[in-house]
Amino acid sequence: MMGMNMPQWGVWAMALGLGVFLVMLFSSVRRHHGVHRSLFSWPYSLWMIVFTVIPLFLVAYYAFTNKAGQFTMENFANFWDSNREMKMQLSGMGFDPAAMGMGARGTVNVDTLVYSLWMAFLCTIICFAVGYPAALFMADRDFKLGPILIVLFIIPMWMNFLLRTIAWMSLLEDNGLINTLLQQFGFKKLKLMYNSEAVLLGMVYNYLPFMVFPIYNALSRQDKKLSEAAMDLGANKVRTFARVTFPLSLPGIVSGITMVFMPSVTTFFIPRVLGGGNTEMFGDLIERTFLTADNWNVGSALSLIMMLLILLSITLLRKVDPEGEGGSLL
Amino acid sequence: MEQNNRLINLENISKEFDGTVVLSDINLYIRKNEFLTLLGPSGCGKTTTLRIIGGFEYPTTGRVIFDGKDITADPPYKRRVNTVFQKYALFPHLNVADNIAFGLKIAKMPKKDITQKVGKMLELVNLQGYEKRSVESLSGGQQQRVAIARALVNEPEVLLLDEPLGALDLKLRKGMQLELKRMQQALGITFVFVTHDQEEALTMSDTIVIMKDGRIRQIGTPKHIYDEPKDAFIANFIGESNIIRGTMPKDEVVHFCGMDFTCVDFGFEKDEPVDVLIRPEDIHIVGTDASQLTGVVRSVLFKGVHYEMIIDAGGFNWKVHSTVMAPEGSRVGLSIVPFNIHVMRLQKDALPEEAAP
Predict the structure, then answer these.
(1) Chain A: nearest CA to B107, how far in angstroms?
(2) B183: β partners
(3) For labeling, which of B136, B155, B351, B354 is most exposed (least CB within 10 Å)?
């Protein structure tokens, strides 16, 4: 319709960016007999502007306009009451939605959001509970299996995330590996899939490394002399951990929580595969609104709400760790 | 009674890391209220020795006796010693006052007493008013003082100091040397001090333990070690020195530079090869007629208090310190009194280059 589709736009933008960068580079070399270092930030800045900042403005634009391109808050009202559009159509056709038993507010969108936040919260807690001890062992230089543990955490990341998630299916299915084994030993089959627990398992499995590595980093960079100093001053191992090792790993924890919570909230695909549609999360809802319902305006509004919530949680986290690496990640 | 005075006894300590021997056969006692320095080049095992006393390393063999009790297997938090770490190891998440109060809080001392003790310590190390400051905002010298206060506030019987002055500049270091010595005397605490700086060791110590390659080479007072070093390595390490290979034709006569010199040493085999030590300040420049050796001044350096001259005489370049300068290229006579010629048995692994015959 515009004579050019999206991928071509991307190529043109990149070519333009590269051109601008090269012109700047050469003119700067000519003028100063040297390259100013800030010049090297241009490719990345351009990349971000073209593929992140501009799309963000587009999302905001869509969220506050209707299909005709006029300013509206409708999309947010539709978020609050998912039946709103249908009710308006019905009234438009002269029906009374209330009389047809459809007067109530449609809560799907809000419920999905609450469910997503709850699942992300659980996932983050579990990742922390499992990840912190693992990171602690990995960072302990006297623990000989530490390097092996690190490799074990990295290897699954070599595999595509979709594959990893689908692999869980063959384990958890009704006739999957676990149930087959259970039957072999005379136990009853278990219903392992198509529930929230399976989704949570998939999320923890996928996001655990993002909790472990920042904490591992913070712990392994810690000067061993500090815990020696604590012991020297009379603290046993438990108190050394509580008063020195743990507080000094806080930046890693904040960073890990951020890196697990953010993708957890926006999780999609995992619920569809392991939850079997009974457990839609907000990421899936956004995808469905854009692609299946083909409603870019409501979809953008949902994305914007999600983004605001994430920004809010990050701001809260930053309060815990004002200058730590959690903040510098963002 | 000498025995009763011994606070720490290291008995036959050896230590291996993955099959590498870093300490062998360390026998050492440390007296109450003593300022003892472990001195040696890097890698000599001095820090490992200190860490064994502190409980951060356990010896492969041997025992650590503290006040008559075997504490070899005790963890650090059960020992009545505190440590000032190299580069201080202050807790970055705590302010100055909380760093100092750390040990007292662990010991569950009442809050009121903690505040009072921390205040007293800050006064001792001259950091009043710094309570709420972050330790990372302090200069190296101030961090050093916090580290000392954090250890001393627990009133340890022994303070272990691992090269605590290494990161300070020269002037600050000299000031801290005096300050540490003053604190040690005022508080009556035993200090075990690790350094590779021989001057620091001479200035501060009651006893110096010289270590090399994981072994103790000599133990003595600073003066004793300076005047009577056991071998060429120690002589070279402590102070400046001329070391020349010679022989002992008989008691109280030593032969070097093709001549016999009268000395005060005896008890060597006939014609036993020896190292001869003569300190640069013990060589006197005299007229060529009255001298034992004559030579030519090769170079002159002004060092502030004295001149340092290199004088080529008898086939050896002598380092000579004198407040009177002999000009470069001039011919001078050298004279050494018998008392200042120090004869040492050869140490196979410690031949300085100048000692080659």
Answers:
(1) 7
(2) none
(3) B136
